[in-house]
Amino acid sequence: MEASLKLLNEYVDISDQDPAALAEMITRIGLEVEGMHELAHGDQLVVGYVKECQPHPDSDHLNVCQVEVKPGVVTQIVCGAPNVSAGQKVIVALPGCNLGEGFKIKEGKIRGEVSNGMICSIAELGLDARLLKEEDKAGIHVLDEEAPLGEEALSYLGLKDYILDIGLTPNRSDCMAMTSLAYEVAAVLNRKVKLPEVKKYDELDSDIRVIVETDLCPFFGAKLIKGVKTKESPQWLKNHLLASGIKPINNIVDISNYVMLETGQPIHMYDYDKMKEKSFVIKTGFHQKAVLLDEKEYELLPEDIIVSTDQGIGCVAGVMGGNDTKIDDNTRNIVIEVATFDGATLRNTARRMNLLTDASQHYIKGALNTANSFHVLDRCADLLVQEADAREIYKTVSTDLNVTEKIVSVSQDKINGLLGMSIALNEIQDIFDRLSFSYTLKESTFEVVVPTYRNDITMAADLIEEVARMYGYDNIPSTLPLMEMTRGNLTPKQSNERFIRDVLVDLGLHETLTYTLTSPSTVNDFNLFHPLDEQVKLMSPLGEERSVTRKSVIPSLLQVINYNQSHASKDVCLFEISNTYAKDEITTLAIACHGVYHSVPWAGIHRNVDFYLVKGFVETLFKKLCIEESRYSLVRVEADNKNFHPGRSGYIKMGKQIIGVIGQIHPLMAKKYDIKGETVVAELNLSTLLNLKTKALKVTSIPQYPSVNRDIALVMDTDIQTYDVVRSIQKAGKKLVSKAEIFDVYEGEHIEEGKKSVAITLTFQDPTKTLEDTIINDVMENILAVVKSEYNAHLRG
Predict the structure, then answer these.
(1) Which CATH number fits domain 492-689: 3.40.190.80, 3.30.930.10, 3.40.50.2000, 3.40.50.2300?
(2) Any binding-site annotation on 456?
(3) Contact 582, 570 (CB under 8 A)
(4) Rounded to 5 degrees, what angle do the CA atoms 491, 492, 498 make?
(5) Topology (CATH) of 407-473
(6) Is 465 known as a binding-site position?
(7) Which reaction is catalysed here (predicted)?
């Protein structure tokens, strides 16, 4: 928003204020001044008189002028403007005059003739060229004959002005009206606002009718004025518009724009004589094309608010008037419209039509003061009498104006409590007085009658904000809130998950992150922890493939393996920790491995991925989490399992609960996910595992006494799981068997059918002494007795 200090001075006295200092004060109360500039440039501009004007002897377009720049002082200036002639009062830039952007006037010669200055056009003074008429840019500016010789030109023209570029926040759209901005400045300077006096005239009865057929127009008022004359606006009016970034047109249009600047209320005017039916119907429902004031055709939709005249388009409400009733040079009788329209509807219309005009912006941003509507009409009528020679004023015809007085209460304690201050009662009173807020004070509570132009004040917090900004944000002390100091730590769950990531990365796996959303066709694949008939569906999915939340992370990792294979990356070892969802939310760890895990080609070492590799990852992880082997068991999956290879997969169980799985994916699943070769996966229920009570990790010293190894070969049924046999041996070892490792499993010659031979290395060790053979033999006998009774296993002969 551009605010002219000269126009602002019409409403509050700021003549003694430095523009930069005033801009700083306005910024400190929340109306940020983003920039400041002079309306026109030139520090040595005077009113001159062209006494003589002769053609240049060496040019067909230049003239040599003798110009009196002050009484009795004549100087020669060479001028190329086509409209220069003797007897004119003109704007002269004397030598040394700085016209901005490095353009400085100097004494010199032009084609051999001395030139001591420049005769200027308005455009050369730094005014926005878009707001000037073509004649202002084509030639020099000729002043009226009464212009005083030698006077400072900018002051005489009324162009000595500073413009503030204020960035209004959305809640302070009221300051788009200069009178509202004046109240802010008056409050800062502790001065009074002087509103213009509006002269009342004898008003005649009007034949105009107003009919509102939509709830989107709370108020509509129309006032007939007869006998106006369309002509050029006076200089003061044009200057105020130029300073506010509005192009002057003629006195009728300029008055409507000026009153909008002053009051914030957009105004539209109709040519009364072009209306056959003297009525205005405000409604929606039009769906047609119409030519508007810019002589362009636009399409109107049924939701657009229309001011209809003669059953046609008199005006697209709040946006632009229709071409049929526009004001022109022959207009003598006009109707002034002041109305309130729904801002949201206007915004949609203006944006669609690409007509974000000054008027529409006032409606869109809510800068209206509907309670002031009758005053706005009277102000227009008064100015039309003064500047357009209006002869007859008619009574306003309008809908009912319903204005509800808005009262907001706030106490001194609430103000100080929210601001953390101790502002005295009389200081709060002073602030409300300076803001021109009327109020009643009951003990320490203010009952404030909110001014009708302050649409942003609706509750006590808004009044407290007013007190804070007028008291001065810089005067509010900076204090830290009182709070208990806390140390930032990870939760146990976060700590454990980070630990698991570190362990798996150390084992050579790569962490990945995949989508939580998946397709209904894969949602139940590899699902172990959620019911098959439960799933979470998105209400508005982007597509079928991302429409439900996953119940297992394994399908996502298989898709990653497929992607890598498609890009010639065959050796992949991945893991992901993520949540899966159905009725419950479960945190899971998934591992997927394919190809070669470790390779040293020059040594002939190639470790391919298999079941035992992934099983080793899981066992290592359990050891790191202090989950003892005795707490879980590995059970073969069902023979008809559709997700896992039945001979190379097993569930991890704790009691009867399945808390994980390790295994090779079923060949049919490999085909479904388009994976070539063997892929081994694992998935663990971390929500269960990380909530287990485990023993603390114990660190023991390195044994000082030697260990003893014994190898045994046990013959047993082929369906007996050797993993269980090893656990039984360790239990029977009376804590002297520190390690039991299988190094061979044999079936075939010399072993009867249905049997197998399992070779195991037993390591005996006592941390307190050297073991003797008798002790080891006793333990061995106990071990053989246990495996005989539990598994019917015996030493191989």
Answers:
(1) 3.30.930.10
(2) yes
(3) no
(4) 90
(5) Phenylalanyl-tRNA Synthetase; Chain B, domain 1 (3.30.56)
(6) yes
(7) tRNA(Phe) + L-phenylalanine + ATP = L-phenylalanyl-tRNA(Phe) + AMP + diphosphate + H(+)
Report yes or no: 665 and 681 within 8 Å, Cβ to Cβ.
yes
751: Cβ contacts below 8 Å, ≥ 6 apart: 715, 757, 796
Q: Are strands 605-608 and 596-600 parallel, antiparallel or unpaired?
A: antiparallel
Q: Are 596 and 585 in contact (CB under 8 A)?
A: no
Q: Are strands 203-204 and 392-394 parallel, antiparallel or unpaired?
A: parallel
H or E element that contains 746: strand 737-746
Instruction: State the Cα–Cα distance between residues 635 and 446, nearest whole angstrom.
Output: 78
Is the predicted pLDDT of residue 100 greater than 80, yes or no? Answer: no
Q: Is 674 annotated as a binding residue?
A: no
Q: Does the pLDDT of residue 574 top 90, yes or no?
A: yes
Q: Which residue has the tokens 């309670």?
A: 371
Task: Answer yes or no: is pLDDT of 694 > 90.
Answer: no
Interval 139-186: pLDDT, tens: 899 999 889 999 999 999 999 999 999 999 988 999 999 999 999 999
Rounded to the nearest 10°, the torsion over CA 531, 533, 536, 539 is: 180
3-class SS letters over 458-493: CCHHHHHHHHHHHHCHHHCCCCCCCCCCCCCCCCHH
Task: Report pLDDT for 183.
Answer: 96
Task: Give, in order, the Cα–Cα distances in Å from 71 to each of 67, 120, 140, 151.
Answer: 11, 20, 22, 10
Tokens matching residue 252:
């009728």
382 annotated ligand-binding residue:
no
Dmax (CA) for the chain in angstroms is 141
Q: Which residues contact 191 (CB under 8 A, 6 or more apart)?
A: 12, 13, 185
CA 197 to chain centre: 45
Q: List the beta bridge partners of residue 650.
A: 636, 662
Say which residues have a Cβ less than 8 Å from residue 135's Cβ, sequence separation at least 6: none
Rounded alpha-carbon distances, angstroms, from residue 671 to 116, 526, 574: 94, 15, 20
For residue 30, how far is the Cα from the chain centroid?
A: 21
**Count of CB atoms situated within 10 Å of the CB of 243:** 26
Third-level CATH fold of 203-398: Phenylalanyl-tRNA Synthetase; Chain B, domain 3 (3.50.40)
Choosing among 2.40.128.110, 2.40.50.140, 3.40.50.300, 2.60.120.600, the CATH entry for 45-157 is 2.40.50.140
